[in-house]
Amino acid sequence: MPDQAWNIFLELLRAGLWEQDLRLPAVPDTAGWEQVFRLGREQAVMGVVLRGIAHLPEEQRPPEALQPVLQAWRTAFARASARYARVQEALLAQLDGAGLHPVVQKGTEAAKYYADPSVRQAGDIDLFLPEGVDRFFAGAQNDGIHRAADGSAVFFRDGVTVELHPRYYDIHLSPARLPAPGTPCGELLLLSSHIFKHAIGPGVGCKQLCDLTRALTALEGRYDKRELAAALRRAGLRRWHRLLCSLLVADFGLDPSCCLPGFRALDPAPLRCLVRAGGNFGLAGAAHRRSRQRGTLGKKAATAGAFLRRLPFSLRFGARETFATMWELAVGNLRK
Fold first, then answer.
1. Which stretches of 159-278 are DSSP H helices?
2. Contact 82, 160 (CB under 8 A)
3. Dist. CA 166–CA 92, nearest whole Å
4. Strands 160-165 and 153-157
């Protein structure tokens, strides 16, 4: 059943991602549906899966006994979407009023590329501060704010995790050698490199892959692909991006024309295995479940172990950024 559940999960994911009607070749029983829902939770794409279910014919939808579970998820997504929007709007106004001019990054920004932004499961709010995080710390009054290993300011606002970043990209290059932050080309480079950092570390799920799939589709024709290719080459991530797009085409329904010119697919199996085994932030992995019982040190040890286990993959597809990321995390943790 695991392979069948995964295949049904992907069918529903594509239907929800592209708002397309779907008829399953085989309808799962109650236990099968529960496995599909588990995958949706672990991969942090339950909202997209619910949209896929809405595109099934009535006779193929989950049984009546599971309808309360689905309705609870729909209600939770609607409330979370409204809360995140409210917190982000207030936070942007506060930072602007303090003379800081944040640029929205990653998740909440990527949601705009979905047909219905509310189906994207919210994680946290990521903002880039061009003026620098040190200015924010100088004026901060909240004792709950702390500095992460990468220099970001992290705090909670109305139950929402907020991260203020000192740099826009997860790439260790001079900003002058990268596209301008917030541009279409910059957004795509950020999403691709951010997925790489999760893949080589704690784990990456389908949520980030859906983000890039939708962004590549929406931004097709609106950016210079040569600029993106050059930036990826400078960062040593050109082969990584090719592998990533290969998986997006094979499993997520991305049109190959949305990839870089001359795109030739690689075997996506190495990345597919990481996504399937790890899930969002490694949620599906046994190491993640064990680390939750060990406290902060246990979580750090689990992260370090994940980086080491994935070195053969990391060095093959992005050696330069792998070494730079591991060095930065090590130095950042020693300084804390």
1. 184-199, 206-218, 225-235, 238-252, 269-278
2. no
3. 16
4. antiparallel
Q: How far apart are CA 48 and CA 31, in angstroms?
A: 20
**Is the backbone of residue 57 left (phi > 0), alpha (psi -120 to 50) or beta?**
beta
Give the span between the Cα atoms of 92 and 164, in whole angstroms: 11
**pLDDT tens for each residue of 77-122:** 888 888 999 999 999 999 998 889 999 998 888 999 999 988 999 8
Q: What is the pTM of this model?
A: 0.91
Residues 156-211 pLDDT 10s: 998 899 999 999 998 999 999 999 999 999 999 999 999 999 999 889 999 999 99
Residue 318: Cβ-neighbour burial (10 angstroms; 0-12, 13-18, 19+): buried
User: How far is the C-alpha of 31 from the C-alpha of 291, rounded, in Å?
Assistant: 28
Report how far residue 331's alpha carbon sits from residue 164's, in angstroms, rounded to the nearest whole number. 19
Neighbour count for residue 34 (Cβ, 10 Å): 15
